[in-house]
Write a structure and sequence with these properties.
Strand content: 35-45%
Order of helices and strands: HEEHEEEEEH
Helix content: 10-25%
Largest sheet: 5 strands, antiparallel
Shape: globular
Radius of gyration: 13 Å
Structural class: alpha+beta
Strand order of the largest sheet: 3-4-5-6-7
Number of helices: 3
């Protein structure tokens, strides 16, 4: 599935629990808080409104974009164990109703990220 299509599929906000890269959360704010305090999660300084987290236990890279102090877009990508090492998993996104194209752009950039 093309990344822009994956990002577009997550554009409708929901009041139900969401799941990205194996992590369940009710709101984007909750997701950000849980990542921030996770004992196996490394936090990196915010840059260009994007906060980066790396969950060492699940080998997952997270990018959360903030607008007006709130998380507006979340993307993640996991490493998947194989018999011959690790491969990159697909990018997952919660676009939170984004209609600006930011979510699709962030998902495309994350697809190229090496970690």
């Amino acid at each position: 599935m093309p990344l822009w299509l994956l990002a577009m599929s997550a554009m409708t906000p929901s009041t139900e629990s969401q799941n990205l890269c194996g992590r369940t959360y009710a709101t984007m704010t909750q997701l950000g808080q849980e990542l921030r305090v996770g004992k196996d999660v490394a936090n990196f300084p915010e840059r260009d409104r994007v906060v980066t987290f790396y969950d060492r236990k699940t080998m997952t890279l997270w990018w959360l974009t903030k607008r007006r102090g709130q998380v507006s877009v979340a993307t993640c990508k996991r490493k998947i164990a194989t018999d011959s090492g690790y491969i990159d998993g697909r990018v997952e996104a919660d676009c939170n109703g984004d209609r600006t194209g930011l979510c699709a752009a962030q998902a495309q950039r994350m697809a190229a990220a090496k970690f």
